Amino acid sequence: MKYETCIGLETHVMQKTQTKMFCGCKHEYGAEPNTNVCPVCLGYPGAMPVMNSKAIELICKAGLLLGCEINPHSTWDRKNYFYPDMAKNYQITQADEPICIGGQVPVDVNGEHKIFTLERIHQEENAAKNTHVSGASLIDYNRAGTALMEIVSNPCMHSADDAFAYIHTVKQIMEYGGISDCDMEKGHMRSDVNISVRPVGQSKLGEKVEIKNMNSPSFIVEAINYEVSRQISLLESGGEVVQETRGYDPDRGETFTQRTKENAHDYRYFPEPDLMPVEVSAEQIAQWKSELPELPTQRRERYVSELGLPEYDAKLLTAEKSISDFFDETCKNTDSYKLVSNYMMGKVANLISETGTALIDSKLTPGALAKVATLAGGAISSSAANDLIEILFTKGGDPKAIIEEKGMAQVNDDSALETWADEAIAGNPKAVEDYKSGNGASINALMGSVMKASRGKANPPAVIAMLKTKMDN
Known about the structure:
By secondary structure, the protein is α+β, with helices and mostly antiparallel strands. Helix content is about 40%, strand content about 20%.
């Protein structure tokens, strides 16, 4: 029997706010444990929540970026559960009337364009961070109460590749939109993955299994592939899939049972009595819509249509917002767009990989890279340009001053070029003979001799012109 996989993701994204969702405590990564806390986020009796308006703005902008309908009237609910990561024993969330309804995520999956639909995006508060060590659990409430939105897809994905492309696209849009930094290592973005299988042709969904707190796209792919295989094997052996919550062990490459899945009624949702509903006017939505930034797809189109870059370059350059922003800033100071693109995808990318240093943390600036692109091919050779970029990346400085200090300037002086050309012609009679016999490629041997004699400083186009002038006469 053939089976169809159905996948839906509940993706939690921490919003880029300065303070928490319902109190004035700082939203700060890496602070000493339990220092950014107050009676509200510690769940003290009588402490009253106050809504963070910036978080509401960000979730609405996220909804607009993903094609959602913004609900003009949304409400708050209490999700009740007993666990140390939520001191007050309930989470403030949105159950019945979320702030964003519907939506879609257009993606490319292995060259095929697909559109994955959303059920909703709702606002809630984050839980504390649990650290389990030596049989004990340590709780850091700095994260408790931070602004968190949940993007809920429909079960419209059918493979691990679909889920990977979906997560990558959502991450890009949230980063470009300024909604979140989406740093998965810092817990800014994580997903619960719902997976079921059913016989091909069956309309009813199979029994769902949820894999919790996945913060790595590659682990999501591995977990989906394992879980699909497990469920199909179970059904084909005469067993049945049980609705449950499972975890993923990346070391073993396996999912494992955590607990029987709760249903909505187990959380005893009821309206939050301490918060007023969220009212959003049409005028406010229009204002936020006018403030939306350029998205990756729009930026790729601009790179191709306005800057003349190949599709391949545009796709690579927009994969990360920080890289794309750096490229844009560089291009404000030079019109050598393709050359800058080559540097970004070549030398700069290699330096990032070799040193483990993010571009934003390096000493290289957009202005300096623009100067390199302007000087390359004239004042300096292409190899010298790469050497210069490496110096600028690790040490910084002024490109022209470094060129002068390191003696990197390209030689364009005719008298010097002529001397080197004469020496190359005299020292390579076979190459000269081949050239005059019609083998144009043989000039490369002469070119190599000149570059060796000049220690790479001779201007290649000028050398070629000089050699041709001498041998064609």
